[in-house]
């Protein structure tokens, strides 16, 4: 009887140590930038990031967004670009034009504009940055518009027309893009 109790206690201690170790690993993943908002594996995006051949008369560092393809291209030297899957504006919210990145923010807060609140009165009036925030891990602001290239707390929407005009990416991809572009970069949006 004592021996069975000792075995049960030892098993419970091992299980508790395993849970503690797993929790510690998860905490470390969050600290290192790979927390719950970053899925494990090569890419959390349903459309993996890739380097592709890209022809066009664009300077390296230019971002070209093709809403019809639901892709964002970061132009690189030598006729190539990094291609990312994105979510785009739904019907009635798509737009085209040329802007510059005027600001970049990590874990941005979100204040829905008045017209969005009229459509969706259930939305919060303000939301602090964090993993539940719809803007995700990073945001790049486009000119004086309300539009942004930003992360998302809904990575499954990448490749779909679901936004109110912003361009959403997985948090993994938006962090990668954010680290590669500068304030002042040209963004060309075409349908």
TrEMBL record:
Superkingdom per UniProt: Bacteria
Keyword Membrane appears in the UniProt entry: no
One Gene Ontology MF term: glycosyltransferase activity
Keywords in alphabetical order: Cell shape, Cell wall biogenesis/degradation, Glycosyltransferase, Hydrolase, Peptidoglycan synthesis, Signal, Transferase
Active site per the UniProt annotation: 150, 166
CC terms in the record's Gene Ontology section: extracellular region
Pfam families: YkuD
Ranges for domain L,D-TPase catalytic: 61-190
Span of the signal peptide: 1-22
BP terms from Gene Ontology: cell wall organization; peptidoglycan-protein cross-linking; regulation of cell shape
InterPro entries: LD-transpeptidase (IPR050979), LD_TPept_cat_dom (IPR005490), Transpep_catalytic_dom (IPR038063)
Pathway: Cell wall biogenesis; peptidoglycan biosynthesis
Family, per entry: Belongs to the YkuD family.
This protein's name: L,D-transpeptidase
Organism per entry: Rhodopseudomonas palustris
UniProt lineage: Bacteria, Pseudomonadati, Pseudomonadota, Alphaproteobacteria, Hyphomicrobiales
